[in-house]
Design goal:
Layout lengths: L6 E7 L6 H14 L4 E7 L6 H8 L2 E4 L5 H11 L4 E4 L12 H8 L4 E5 H4 L8 H19 L11 E4 H5 L10 H11 L4 E5 L15 H14 L2 H23 L5 H30 L7 H9 L2 H28 L7 H36 L1
Parallel strand pairs: 1-2, 1-4, 2-3, 5-7
Antiparallel strand pairs: 4-6, 5-6
Helix pairs in contact: 1-2, 6-9, 10-11, 11-14, 13-14
Length: 377
């Protein structure tokens, strides 16, 4: 019987006694009126206000999820769902479970993920705080689109539909509110077929405050977006520091501002380390299945193997040693007495920079090879 279900409507629940009944009633009515073989599944996350009893009385199937968190509840609900397709929506009566045809039609036509877009469908007065509407959602969605080239215009809409098998392949892991971002980001990275439909957001029907905490959960979303984009977190800032440091160094070598030269050289060293972090992070994430394989990274790693890295490291170390010897000769020529810092430091600082970069590259090459051992096996 379970294999015959086309659609599961999944609602995460934590003390939603005020609104769970009307949400289930609407969802069951939708299934009946549209002759869809499906179920309403409530993923309860520890309710103590009678939500479970109300849901069972209304005809929903209830699964108890012991791990706390919005993401945990939905992960448990998705796993327990019998439907080929799943539509998830909050149990606070802010989404219209009567009008789910746009989602179902897109799923039937082959889309893997159908996102609701509240900004296109309409946000009714009082349904969304101004902080979320004009800052939080807008900024986080912009960052998500910029970092991952996602087609979604509303990253955090709580009403969305998806093909169960396609989403299970993403190996979603986050347990909190950032689950909403993880689904969109991974679906984009793994090239799932994504679309969005307008949906209306209404004021929720609860008398208590929502579980959402604006700044805490906003930070968790932003943190996730940054951690899942080594390019923007590490690579681009690192390359920018290296470029700025190199340009500044070349300019300052022709001047007399030795102290500024030290800062520019330090920028190169720090930038190089940040770029290495980008490579480490991406390699580890792919190895652990957090991100899909990256053909560009594969090409880079095929060229930049342990031996290549060691060769470059030795070249940098030699340059540093030669420069240091030259600086020592200058000092020796002055009978180890007073030297003009403006001239000598122009040799010493680049030499020390080469030594630092050589040591970093030497050991980073070995560490990267350790990360690649599992990838090659």
């Amino acid at each position: 019987m379970n294999e015959l279900l086309e659609l599961s409507i999944v609602m995460p629940c934590l003390d939603e006694a005020e609104t769970i009944a009307v949400c289930i009633e609407k969802a069951l009515s939708y299934l009946k009126n549209n002759q869809i073989v499906g179920e309403v599944l409530v993923a309860d996350n520890g309710s103590k206000d009678g939500s479970i009893e109300i849901a069972q009385k209304m005809g929903a199937r209830v699964v108890n999820i012991t791990s706390k968190g919005y993401g945990s509840a939905l992960l448990g609900g998705i796993e327990a769902a019998y439907g080929e397709y799943i539509i998830m929506g909050d149990a606070d009566d802010s989404y219209d479970f009567i009008n789910l045809n746009p989602f179902v039609e897109r799923l039937r036509s082959g889309y893997d993920l159908v996102m609701g877009n509240r900004f296109k469908g309409g946000i009714r007065p009082g349904a969304m705080p101004k902080l979320h509407r004009y800052l939080g959602n807008q900024v986080l969605t912009f960052i998500g689109k910029l970092f991952f080239n996602s087609p979604c215009g509303d990253f955090h809409c709580g009403l969305r539909g998806f093909n169960k098998r396609a989403i299970e392949r993403l190996n979603l892991r986050t347990t909190g509110m950032e689950f909403a971002s993880e689904m969109v980001v991974k679906a984009t990275l793994y090239d799932l077929c994504i679309t969005e439909v307008p949906t209306i957001l209404s004021p929720d029907g609860r008398s208590r405050p929502p579980h959402l905490r604006s700044w805490r959960d906003g930070w968790r979303h932003l943190r996730f977006l940054l951690l899942y984009s080594p390019r923007w977190l590490f690579l681009y800032p690192g390359l920018l520091l290296i470029l700025a440091g190199l340009i500044s160094t070349l300019i300052l070598l022709n001047g007399s501002k030795v102290h500024s030269l030290l800062y520019s050289a330090t920028a190169v060293v720090i930038g190089f380390q940040i770029v290495i972090f980008a490579v480490f992070t991406k390699t580890y994430a792919i190895d652990e299945g957090l991100m899909p394989q990256d053909p560009k990274l594969k090409k880079i790693l095929r060229f930049f193997n342990l031996e290549t890295g060691l060769i470059f490291a030795v070249v940098l170390l030699l340059l540093g040693v030669i420069g240091s010897i030259y600086a020592f000769k200058i000092w020796q020529g002055a009978l180890f007495g007073y030297l003009d810092p403006a001239n000598v430091m122009k040799v010493v600082i680049p030499s020390v920079t080469c030594l630092a970069l050589g040591v970093q590259l030497f050991f980073s090459s070995f560490f990267l090879s350790v990360l690649n051992l599992k990838l090659k096996s």
